[in-house]
Structure formats: C-alpha cells, structure tokens
Amino acid sequence: MANEEKLVEYLKWTTAELHQAQQELRELKAAQHEPIAVVSMACRLPGKTRTPDDLWDLVSEGRDAVTGFPDDRAWELPEERPYAELGGFLDDAAGFDAGFFDIGDTEAVATEPLQRLMLHLAWETVERGHIAPHTLRSTLTGVYVGATGHDYATRLETAPDELLPYLGGGTSGSLVSGRIAYALGLEGPAISVDTACSSSLVALHLACQALRRGECGLALAGGGTVMSTPHTFHAFAHQKSLAQDGRCKPFAAAADGMGLGEGVGLVLLERLGDARKNGHPVLAVIRGSAVNQDGAGYGLAAPNGPSQQHVIRAALADARLTPDQIDAVEAHGTGTPIGDAIEVQALLATYGADRSPDRPLWLGSVKSNTGHTQGAAGTAALIKMVQAFRHDTLPPTLHVDRPTPLAAWKKGAVRLLTEAVDWPRREEPRRVGISAFATSGTNAHLILEEPPVEEPPKPDDALAGTLTAVPAPELPVAWPLSARTPEALRAQAKALVTHLAAADPTPSPAEVAHSLAATRSPLEHRAVLTGTDHADLLAAARALAAGEDHPDLVRSVPGADPKKIAWHFGGHPADGDTTGTAPGAVPGAAFGGAGFRSAFPLFATAFDEARALLDTHLDPRLPAPLPASPVHAELSRFAVHTALARLLLDSGVRPHSLTGDGVGHIAAAYAAGVLTLDDACRLAAAHAIHSAQPASPDAYEPVLKQLTFQRPTLTLTSTAPADTPLTSADYWHHHLTSPAPAAPLTPETHTLLHLGALTTETSQTTAVRALLTALARLHTTGGTVDWTPLVQRTDRPRTIDLPTYSFQAKRYWLHDHTAHAAV
C-alpha cells in the first residue's frame, strides 16, 4: 500500500510539473509573437517635412517633394553630368542645436549631419510618446538605427588639427546609435545597421525581436541617410539606374529608374501590453516581420523574386496571419523597370493569388513623393501607413501613367493606388505589409496593423477618473515650461500658444498642466504659468514668448545664484518680503484646507489620514472640539501642515532645513522623519488640548513615553538648548513647555516657504494659487519641483500631445570650417 501511495504522489507531482512546463511553453511561444506597439514617431523628410503630420499632408495632397540640388552644401559638380540635378532633399541638413546636447562647436562641425539629426529626433520621439526623456536614463531602452551614406568627410584631403580628435567618431556609423544612447543615458542595446536600402526596416525588425526577448523595455528604431556630397548620384548614374527627371515612378510603364532622396525617421516601440499598462499612445501595432537574403543570383545588386516571396511568407507566419488578411502593401517600388516587375510578381504570388477581385491588394510607394530616401525608406513607409490608419485613407502614388507591362497583373488581384482610396474601419483590423529590398541583397518585410479600439471604462471604473472633490469655483493650475536657453524657452512658449490655439477640442487647463509636468524634462531655464482658465494662462504664455513680465508668470532670473530651501510650519505667515526671491506665505485655506483638498487629491488623502489619527488620540473624557474652537483650529492647522509636507515631499521638494513653532514644529519633525505620522498626531493632539487650558509641568510625560524617535532624514532646526538631542523626550518636553525661538532664516540666504497659515478669510482659489506661486518661485530659483502630483486633479488624468522641444539650430558644415581654415 505504501508503494502505491508513493506512486500516486509521484504521478501527481509529475502531472503538476508537466502542466507547469506546458504553461511555460505556451507563454514562451506567445512572447515570440507578442504584438509590438508603435508609441510615437518623428521624421525629417524632403518637402520641408518635419513631422509625421507634414508627411501625411505631402502624400494625401499628392505633392512632389523633388527639387534641384541644395545650394547650401558647397557641392562641386563635374562639367558633364549623366544625371538630372534633381532629388528629394532636407531643407536644413546643416542645422543642429549643439549646446542642447553639450557638444562643442568644433565637435559639432566634425560630426556628420545624420548623427546630429538623429539626436534631435530621438529627443522628439520620446516626447511624442508622452515620456519625459530624463526618466529613461539608466533604463534598458534600446536603440536600433539603419545608417547609410557616411560621406561627410570624404572630400577632405587633409583636416585641420582641431578636428582630428572628432572626425573618426563623428563619421562612424556605429555612433549614430551610440551617440543617442549616450545623450539620453540609455543602457539597452545600441546597434547601427547598414544593409543599404533596407537598413531602417531591418533595424525595426531587430528592435521588435529584442523587445520580445526582453532585452529592452522600449526601443528607438528607424534610420536615415543624408547626402553630404553628390557621390551617390555619380555612383548610381554609372549603373544607369537613375530616372531622367529625378523622380521615382513606382510600377509604372513610364518608369525609367529611381530618383534619389534623403531623410531620417525614428519610431518608439514597446510591447503592446506594456504600452497599455504604462498609458502610452498606441498608434499602430507591428504584428510580425522577417528578414532574409537573396544569396547567389543574377548579380550582387539584382533583386531576387523567390527571396522576396520567402520573406513575405515568413513575415506572415511571424504575424500568424494569412495573405487575405492584408489590405495593402507599401512597397519598395523605386521605379527601376526590372526591379519593380520582379516585386509585382512576388506580390502577385504571395498576396494576389486566390484573392477576390472585389477586395484587391492595394499597392503604393511613398518614394513617388519623396524620392528613394535610402536609409530612411522603411521608416518613412511605416510612418505613412500609420497616418493612413488615422485618416482612413490610402493615399495615391504619383507618376503612374499606367501599370508596367513587364508584370503579369492578371495573375492576381493587385491594384495600383493611382488615386486615393477610402479605407474605413471594419470588424477585422486593417493591416498593411511594408517591404524593403536592398542592393546588399538583404530583404525585409513587416506586417503593420491598426491600433486596437480602446475599450470604454467599466461602470465601476468610470468613477475612478472623476475629481476627488468637484471644485467650485475652478481652481488654478500651473504650467511648467523649461529649456536649455532663454531663447528656446521663449520659443517653447510660442509653440505652446500656437498649438493650443489650433487644438480641437481644446484641452482643459488641468490636462495641459498634467501633460507638461509628466512628459517634459525640467531643464535649466524655467518658467511657470499659473491661472484658472485658458485666457489667463495663454496671456502669461504670450508674455513669456515676447520676453515680457506678467503677474501670472514666474521665471528664472539669469545669473541668479541658487539659494537653499527652507520650510517654516507656523500659525501665521512670517513678516517680511513675500515677493521676489522669497516665495512667502502659503495659506492653508479656510475650513481645514478646503481649496487644497479640491485641487490636490494627494493632499486630501494625507489630510484625512491625519485627522483620523488625531481623533483617535484626543482625550475621550473631553468633548469633541467645536469647529470654532481654538483646539479645532490647532488640529486643523496640524493636519494641513502634515498634508502639505506629504504633498511637497512627493513632489520632489527637499528642504535644506525645517523650522516651526508650536504645533508646526511637531509637523516639521514629522516631515524630517523624527516622528511617524501616528506619533506626531499623538503629540499634536496632546499639545492642542493642553494649550487650551492650564497644564502641569509633567502633563506631557505620559504621551512622551509612548513615542519612538527616529534619526532625522532632513535638517530640523532646534528650539531647545544645543546639548538636547532632537530624538529625546527631554527635547520635546522643553519644546512643549518653554520653546526657544529657532534661528532666523533670511530671504537673502534661503528660499523661504511659509506653510499652513490657516485663516478663514483665505479663499480656495487664493490658497491654491499661493501654493503654486510659491513653488514656482522655488522651481525657478534653484529647486526642482516634480509638478505631476501638484497638477493631477483626477485619478486617471488624460495626457495630451504637446509641441516637442524647440531646438535652436545653428549651421555646422565641414566645408565651411575647412574653407575658412584654408583661407
């Protein structure tokens, strides 16, 4: 019997182990195919395209971004040129805000435009993802960048000595990703990829794989090319692969070669589940991707149709989808006749076969608008199709007279997008394939899906986003702005005014405040706007943009030395200056901080906790204090003190010293960590009761024996003789019976914050504005305030899109520097 029992136990154990192994296997397989969210996007492309919205305007309006050669790059052209002097170019390839990234002018000159532009885009992409860039420092955020065309220094026969330390790294493909990781302090993988025309799509593929394997939690991915010389035109002209008019004519009978372009693009990627959990935008979802190689074929740079078919089928398998579930393909489509015909044949064989003519595969290419942007091509295609999801439209492909006769179009249902086609939502998600095929032979294909429909909140959850207390009237908020220079700060204010003027619907002041606080990094030059409604706040923003003063505007004083921060917990505001460098008094507002309770959910929670503890420590033999009694005022003042301390500490405000008188000194001890909240409430309750009536010298001894003192984490200014430790009952007995005045602090040496002067005359609006203004002065005179808990009015505040950083670009071009040196 014993053996049978052992056998049963063994089988139970084995079965449990098997179930666990099967569950782990299912989770592993699911992770290998986990959808990847596109959280944000940024780009610089031809046609003065500086944002994804600009790109949508370009393609939806059917505009051609091809222009003549740039006249700001000092290109030296041969007398006889077997190509048109036309292409798709960036309008400011030389512009860079070197100071923002702490790069000196000499190093900036020696650094290729691709690295410089990618730094701008990396910061911008993170901000567009509703993430403050400084919060990514030391995180496992990856960088995967396709980087091609490093010709910036190829014209130099010799270089000035001052450039030599920087030219190697400044023109290295590896540093395109490495410099981004360094600038943002990212510690995930940083990988540069060069597979020629497929570089950025390969980088996206690698980023998705790394996210699924857990190598990083976020990933910046994309790519780019900037043509610093006309060498690429010379090379492709000798291969006879350039169009006579410099334009790509994808899949057209008139196709006669490709038109060259340049550009840069980045997207921020995150696992879909993480993006939802973290509250980040989900613009689209990458369902699957694949990469392969042409191998030995008709020539090194010749496209290989079977390999293209294989990579498409592999991407579909990775996405666990079938060809009929894909609506369109944003194709490689460079306009080379043979290459386009081979690509169409591959699409007919994979997507077009056995497909209903009523639901054809739509085919287009952004290269018809921008030219072939080389290292940026795959990212430009992805950004275009994310925008197509948003606008429910497949935009037209330009320069198509009729479909190329070199492809057997009748063998499948594939149709060219010669006109815009409506693309409405339906029951099944809309999806598109994106292709990139390179002269290196490396092919890539990616399956992109529209973002999932957001589920409405459940009935129980709907209340969670409501205000903790409905304020009446509407209470003030703070809009913090910052930049690396005063000029950029003014530009940031101007951009915000322009953005909000065009916003439809107009976000609430609280939504703007939350988004500024939660998604932007605090930089050196700062301003804080306070107000109740848009009119007040926008007036202050316009004044900031114009460099003017405004009563609702507090900003950094250039050249001012930062001061130490001191908090004072007292019954009344301190006398003296309450303007300028001294933030002054912060009233607690009438009726126990009613204004603060409405404005700051964190304050309300802390206040209620303190009042509940105070009630438990009141002498039960005495009647409850009446609202008009001194005892009630004392207890309310203390609860305001401790709630303000909790709010400010959670807002990152760390005082250099704390002072207080009466019950305020007990609150200061709580803020300094000497007393727990429970012990502080116990002592404050005893102090309030004894202060209302004569007390014997030993009246506090029973309470003091119940306290446990902790080593302070902040400096608490003593009110007892110097040899009396703060963490002793003797100290607190002395303070409660015969306190000495604390050493005075002056506005000349300290930024003073007088907390919790409780008055019945103080309105809710005045109290909240006073606190925000005081903190604004602190934030702009040496302290740093985390405004997020201070401007959060709901449990689930809505984060809105805001203007990204206003870089102050200067011109840096190697030829300018070397020409000057030669002279």
Integer-rounded radius of gyration: 33 Å
What's the pLDDT, averaged over the residues? 89
**% residues in beta strands:** 5-15%
State the distance separating the first and last CA atoms: 102 Å
Shape: elongated
Count of separate DSSP helical elements: 27
Write the layout of secondary structure elements.
Blueprint (H helix, E strand, L loop, with lengths): L1 H31 L3 E9 L7 H9 L6 E2 L17 E2 L7 E2 L8 H6 L2 H16 L12 E7 L16 H7 L3 H11 L5 E4 L5 H15 L4 E8 L5 H8 L24 E9 H7 L5 E10 L11 H15 L8 E3 L6 H16 L8 E4 L2 H4 L6 H15 L1 E2 L19 E3 L4 E2 L8 E7 L4 E8 L9 H4 L14 E7 L2 H17 L6 H11 L5 E7 L2 H13 L6 E3 L8 E6 L14 E4 L2 H10 L1 H17 L12 H21 L6 E4 L2 H10 L4 H15 L9 H4 L24 H9 L12 E8 L6 H16 L8 H4 L18 E2 L2 H9 L1
Parallel strand pairs: 5-6, 5-7, 10-11, 10-15, 11-13, 20-22, 20-23, 21-23
Antiparallel strand pairs: 1-8, 1-9, 2-3, 4-24, 7-8, 9-16, 12-14, 15-16, 17-18, 18-19
Helix pairs in contact: 2-13, 4-6, 10-11, 15-17, 18-19, 18-25, 19-20, 19-22, 20-21, 20-22, 21-22
